Amino acid sequence: MTFRARHLLGIEPLHPVEITTLLDLADSYVDLNRGSAKHSDALAGLTQINMFFENSTRTQASFELAGKRLGADVMNMAMQASSIKKGETLIDTALTLNAMHPDLLVVRHPHSGAVDLLAQKVNCAVLNAGDGRHEHPTQALLDALTIRRAKGRLHRLNIAICGDIAHSRVARSNILLLHKMENRIRLVGPPTLVPSAFGELGCEVYGDMREGIEGCDVVMMLRLQKERMDGGFIPSEREYYHRFGLDAEKLSFAKDDAIVMHPGPMNRGVEIDGVIADDINRSVIQEQVEMGVAVRMAAMDLLARNLRGEGA
Question: What is the value of pTM for the model shown?
Answer without folding.
Answer: 0.94
